[in-house]
Amino acid sequence: MPPYFESIKSFEDVPITDKGVDTVTFLEAAEGLVKIFVLLGSTAFATVVSDLKGNIAKVRARYDAAPSKSGTLEELVINEPADDKKRTATQGLLWLTRGLSFTCKALQNAQKNKNEELSVAFTKGYEGSLKQFHTFVVKGVFSLAMKACPYRAAFYEKLAADPNGGPPSSQDKVSQDMDKWLAALHNIVTRLEGFYEAGGHAKGF
């Protein structure tokens, strides 16, 4: 198995057309992102992992139920109300986008500030994304999770490591791969946030 960014579906590989963001490859890339929290190695992130997986499952269930209406994420959201008045997948995608935004901002901070520990980068990412949507209790859970982040050096070593014992990637390559992955993720998150805002699709959630 190759190092992390070579072992997952990259957001760079998610097709975006005039109809929107391809649903299937987006979900594959999102599943790869969840593994970031496994590498962080703390049970404090169990809530984050559970939320991400749960929302991915909601979107995938809708796609499986109505693939012809859900080829892109935008089509999925627009077409869902006719079959599901609760808009289960629309809500799931909304919260998934928020979770992706948190992860993106946290890792962008880590990339920009090489001397900061992950706990600082993830705290800044949380404050600029999910925090505004959370209750006092949930904010407390996330605050504990941020403090449980591993040391920066240990995390980046895990990103570079070959699980099969082969030679690790260089840190320069890890950084380059992460920057490309984050740029593509940021583009998709920004697009979805704009889509939800313009169409009023977040109302009621």
From TrEMBL:
Limits of the Glycolipid transfer protein domain: 21-160
SUPFAM superfamilies assigned to the protein according to its UniProt record, in alphabetical order: Glycolipid transfer protein, GLTP
Gene3D superfamilies from the UniProt entry: Glycolipid transfer protein (1.10.3520.10)
Pfam families named among the record's database cross-references: GLTP
Transport among keywords: yes
Keywords: Transport
One MF term in the entry's GO annotations: ceramide 1-phosphate transfer activity
Any single GO CC term annotated in Swiss-Prot or TrEMBL for this entry: cytosol
Keyword presence, ATP-binding: no
Top-rank lineage group of the source organism: Eukaryota
Name of the protein this chain belongs to: Glycolipid transfer protein domain-containing protein
Species this protein is from: Pterulicium gracile
